[in-house]
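To: structure subgroup
Subject: Chain for Friday's discussion

All,

I'm putting the inputs and outputs inline so they're searchable in the archive.
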Amino acid sequence: MRILTGIGVSPGVAIGKAFVREPQKFNVQCRHIETHTIEDEKNRFFDSIKKTVQDIEHLITTLSFSIEDQEILETHKMILLDPELEINVLGEIEAELVCLEFALYNYFTGVIDVFDNMENEYFSQRAIDFKEVAHRLLNYLSGETDAYIEELSGEHILLMEEMPPSKVTEFAAHDVPGICAVKGSKTSHSAIIARSIGIPMVIGIPNLLKKAVEGETVIVDGRNGLVIFSPDEDTLKKYKKYRWRQIKHKDDLKYLTGKPAITRDGVRIKILNNIEFPKELDLIKQNGADGVGLFRTEFLYIDKKELPDETFQYNIYREIAEKLHPNPLVIRTFDLGGDKLSGFLNIKQERNPNLGCRGIRLSLQYTDIFRIQLRAILRAAVSGNISVMFPMITGLDDYRAAMKILRKVRAELVAEGIECSESLSVGVMIEVPSAAILADQLAKECDFFSIGTNDLIQYTLAVDRDADNVARYYSGYHPAVLHLIEITVNSAKKANIPVSICGEMASERDFIPFLIGLGIRQLSVSPSMTLITKEQVMKLDSNALAGIIPEVKSRGSITEEQEYLKQWRTEHEY
């Protein structure tokens, strides 16, 4: 038995036979052409683009894709139809008299190298997108296919160097029970899709492909980040039992749909959802969530050819608010960095975008874009229970500057005779340590807090949450992180304003007793985690949770706090 440890990015247990897929490599030779065949190469280019776009459209319409899948495949279409691709590839064919395959190879490897050399999660995703598009095009031109996909079945655990996001649902369609990869991160598109579909997935395993043996039995433990090769009889028996419980548990939870999450002693906990796309409203209704605690509006801007105008945004916000009414819709203003809007704005490349001009900083620097979004939100708020919150707030100066613009925008709408909300609730994201430390000041001026634990962990511990080599330092169990959450909650209590958790911690079983013990009464989770979070809340007695806080505070290390919370869960059969 061999056990490899990685990062569990999609919980659950999968058991099967190892199916090892080596990294895809472009094997393209430089073939020179004659001048009179240039037109033939151009025709081959247009034909390959047309056929590959058709293939992508077929995937969108024939498989049961998630919202994320559709967005990713639409992005691939945009890459194929980008005029820059045509200009560069056809230009090289004419100037260098090289074949289409070699011109495509040069273009894509150049773009991919640029993205790969940028230490930024967004650009890492872009590199993967370009790799997959290149792979599709070159496969078509060579007559090759990803034949291995047809070989996959419910008995195969897929092991790869890097997991292309748009392939995850294709693997699911072939009943692949689990996925492992050498590269990746918890917030990668592949991980998000795997979680939404429910495929256990572990990433960040450096020697995965070297230590795997084709066809051997392998267990994927997506919660604990373990990959177990050739398990002994007792281990296999134990995980088969886990797997059976996992399947049964999912079916058993359906009875909770639409029921309120109430602790055993009668405390109501609202279970809200984090969403990125309007189409996710169907999932909210299916699972009976209490509303939307975080609507990420970045999809309106990323990979678009032009900035979204006021009417476009207004229609989206209004439609969602009306469908959710009377439940709340909390809209986060765009949380983008200059790297994601570089196509629209003349922004210099930053060495560390996570610490640069992003979130509210970008909004305050490019107020025209910010004003358009605020106008749309204020108008849509007439039609539903809408609140707005600002990301990346570091203190009162940020908040007051944003509020000054909001008040001015509202006055302009009134002067123009356009109906808008007069009492829009305004909150801030607590995701920067300075905001948590100054939460008592912020609580006096804003209407609510939403603690974004993913970024709070990253900024508190000075660790890139998407970097494999420092993943062990990224932990919500760190005493400093839990202390900042406590400071924020206590400040909200004193000011009598609501506070919610909208990061991954909101749905993690070990943290929920601690959060409710602190006084959190709103948890905002991904739609797929609604029912499991609701069940966990309903097992608890809030009166018994207060004692958790001093016990956690008395421990001074990540290991001690983690062991205590897990021990508490075991003792209370939670």
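Points worth raising on Friday:
The chain has a mean pLDDT of 87.
Residues 83 and 89 are 10 Å apart (CA to CA).

D.
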